[in-house]
Design a protein that fits this description.
CATH architecture: Sandwich
Number of domains: 1
Number of strands: 16
Number of helices: 2
Structural class: mainly beta
CATH topology: Jelly Rolls
Shape: globular
Largest sheet: 8 strands, antiparallel
Distance between the termini: 25 Å
Helix content: under 10%
Length: 234
């Protein structure tokens, strides 16, 4: 790991979600644990509250979503961390970077490189990541909670923790210019291991369900994303 971007001219590919959902039953290599990292870049094109960026269907309460009032929310087992600042349809690219370690317990939440966390609750416990179904873009098994946004660099790691109060760790995902850092071909650079979920391709890659992480490919369930008209690297 390091703070120097190995691909300084990296351009992130972005796609547009609207009525689209991709699912994967039982992520390959998923297991129970106490840590996690989530990073995503997005530009909202509509907001309805409750939009689901990543979620599972076991009933264990593992979701990364917008709340009903459009704060970003990490709702994963005993972790409930929300952003202090609400999101709007402002025509801008935003970056959410969050991590948690329940053995401490502690959590981090950064919006556009700035600490914006509101910890509702967090306790020392274990998170069951072995869900029956995971979904990108909407609630698992349902045509609801659909996100409506341009999206890039979909990263979810259930095996590692990085303390994002350390500027060098944030720089592994976000450059000094406020652009996406190159995470490696399979998302391996920030921690040295590929995460379970990493999508960073164009529309064809998403629509094929091709997950560059280790958790296995997703199945296309509804809709179809299209290439976005801009990138957070612009």
């Amino acid at each position: 790991m390091g703070t120097d971007n190995p691909a300084p001219n990296y351009t992130a590919k972005a796609v547009h979600f609207q009525t689209d959902r991709y699912e994967k039953n039982n992520l390959d290599g998923g297991s129970a644990g106490k840590v996690g990292i989530f990073s995503i870049w997005f530009k909202n094109t509509a907001l309805t509250g409750g939009n689901n960026w990543l979620g599972e269907a076991s009933g264990a309460g593992t979701d990364l979503l917008f709340s009903a009032t459009n704060e970003f929310r990490v709702d994963i087992g005993p972790v409930d961390v929300r952003g202090l600042t609400v999101f709007t349809v402002d025509g801008l690219w935003h970056h959410v970077l969050t991590s948690w370690d329940l053995s401490v317990p502690e959590a981090n939440y950064y919006r556009d490189g700035v600490d914006d966390k509101n910890i509702i609750s967090i306790v020392d416990s274990t998170i069951d990541y072995t869900s029956i179904a995971w979904a990108l873009g909407a609630r698992a098994g349902l045509n609801s909670g659909n996100i409506n946004a341009d999206v890039a660099e979909y990263y979810f790691n259930t095996m590692d923790y990085l303390d994002f109060t350390v500027a060098g760790n944030r720089a592994l995902f976000r450059t000094a210019e406020g652009k996406p850092a190159f995470l490696g071909t399979n998302g391996e650079l920030p921690t040295g291991t590929s995460p379970l979920i990493y999508f960073n391709g164009d529309a064809a890659t998403y629509n094929a369900g091709h997950n560059l992480g280790t958790g296995g490919d997703f199945a296309f369930e509804q809709g179809s994303v299209i290439d976005a008209s801009s990138s957070p690297s612009d």
